[in-house]
Amino acid sequence: MDTRDQTRCNTANKYWIMLLTLSAFLILPGSYIPAYCAAPVNDNRADAKSIASLPSGEVVDISDATVEPDEPHYCCYSSRTVWYSFAPTGDNVAVTADISGSDFEDTVLSVYKAVGANLEIQTCGDHGQNVTFWAEAGEIYYIQAGSISSGGQLRMNIALATPPANDNFTNATEIQTLPFDDAQTSISASLEVGEPAPSCYYLPATTVWYQYIPQATQAVTATVAASSGGFLTVHTGNSLESLTEVACRYSYDTWTFTAQAGVTYYFRLGGQAGSMPGFLSFSLEEARPPEAYFNMSSDPSIFDMVYYFDCSYDPGGLGIQSQSWNFGDGTTAEGGNPTHQYAADGDYTVSLTVWTPDGRSASTSQVLHVKTRDVAITKFTVPSAAVSRQTRTITVGINSKRYPEVVRVELMKSIFGYGYQTFASLTQTVPVRPANRTTIFSFSYTFTSDDAKMGKVTFKAAATIMEGRDALPGDNEAIALPTKVSR
Fold this sequence. Notes:
The protein is mainly β. Helix content is 5%, strand content 46%.
């Protein structure tokens, strides 16, 4: 469509919209689209324009492009689309496509692979993003270009993808300072002749290289990530033929090692050919110290064995090699899970120091509260005899030997066939008193006809320290002699 036809078409569209607005009052023809407002010839996938050779650049005006029924949309919905097809006839190739020189910025570009009658998404990008995909010889790929809302001219470019600058060993990226991070579009990378196979991975199809010479001996951590599969190898040497593998790790793994001053280390990242979206990322940093942390028994007394558990973590991935403990009372221990018993109540600062195999260390400490709490039922007074419907007093005497405590006493009675059942409880403060003095918990009980029918009732008392733990709970319960009950 030339410029004059486009101007006439835009004007006609404006008037057509005005006429549709007035359609409730006017009798209009069923449809009217001027001949010069035709959609692009490659508006539909069935009419996709074939790209015979690379590079290629195609300019098209999509102002009157349409969307087919059930047309796929992945990155964003495109209101106007055109289609291209590409089928590599020789070797597999990495291809980059982009939209440039457009009259608008809300472009959408998607690549599909023909699988029978269906389309399988390969990659997509919006708002000016370029896309890179792996094209296999003998397959057909469809490229969908369009916009989210705007119309106008766009240029769809497609070309062989450019390999990364550090594709070859001799062009390894030099790492000057740490930390270092980099990411590459690996889909266009290659494999040099003579590259050694990694010890932990099959020989890949794409690799990139990095070089690092530490000025001082230091522990460093290397991390690799790949979009699909992938590995990291570390080498020493001065040529591709003389490389010695130091380590091999899978993708999303880390490796921490001590890099010697003045030694040249080569880091090789590899991935699978055709992996989507086709990226390799690499980072190198000074190894971080381990993170020291431990758990221990809570609320211990001098009668308890305290258990310690090392929960430390090494972000460098080497793990914890050794642990040293200080229990805060002048005693120490080694190992991951020691135990210790304290001789006296008090607050003790427990500290832990951990070391990794390469000598990195970290320390942490926590305060442990050792408190021996102990209450006892030293008196339990019940009537020896009673009659039905008679109310009598029952008292429980509690002694606290070490600390003032808030204590709850439950009073129970025997139920035939059911053991004991609580019928009353009382909570109050119990101060520290000499062993022969108690704090009295006083209860009233009215004997029942059921008690008289059984002829006796047995009472049981249980004392509980509120918000705490009794170190010696064996004397926290008492059972009185049966009370005879008559009618």
